[in-house]
Design goal:
Length: 164
């Protein structure tokens, strides 16, 4: 859910900005997130301990059973925070995996959304209206950009058992 959701949002943001300032030129700009999503995203507090737990979970998921990774990808298929939360709740093995990593359901769903939204707001302010974030969230992203990129953008294959 962590990387899959981040990649999906990245692709959407890239497609929107690649269309040449879509927000300014297109008759149909990207639709802002629902009000409840915007409120949840703006209210979510990013912390270093949560970022560290997310990093550990992402690393553990990378070497997890392929069926758990498939469950993670499937759970990321949602268009709203409510849908993503519902998907995570239904994916009981995945949910238990994240809980063992010390993450709440809100951490699993909202941390990647907030980071992606902060990245969009920082890199293409014309798209910031889609999922508005706070100045503190953008600042967190700026301060921890390298670590966050390592968490969400690292596509190296899972380690083979017994090899490092």
């Amino acid at each position: 859910m962590l990387k899959a959701m981040f990649r999906l949002l990245s692709a959407l943001a890239f497609a929107a900005s690649a269309n040449g300032a879509l927000a300014q030129s297109s008759p149909l700009p990207p639709v802002p997130a629902p009000s409840a999503d915007r409120s949840a995203i703006r209210a979510y507090r990013l912390t270093v301990p949560t970022m560290e737990r997310i990093a550990r979970a992402a690393a553990a998921l990378k070497s997890a059973d392929p069926s758990l990774r498939a469950e993670d990808t499937a759970a990321a298929a949602g268009n709203t925070v409510a849908e993503l939360m519902s998907n995570l709740t239904r994916a009981s093995r995945l949910r238990a995996f994240f809980h063992r990593q010390g993450l709440t359901d809100h951490d699993v769903v909202l941390f990647p959304l907030v980071i992606m939204s902060a990245m969009i707001a920082l890199n293409d302010p014309t798209l910031a209206y889609i999922q508005p974030v706070s100045a503190d969230q953008i600042d967190f992203y700026k301060r921890h950009r390298l670590a966050l990129d390592a968490i969400f953008l690292d596509d190296s294959p899972p380690a083979k058992p017994g090899k490092r």
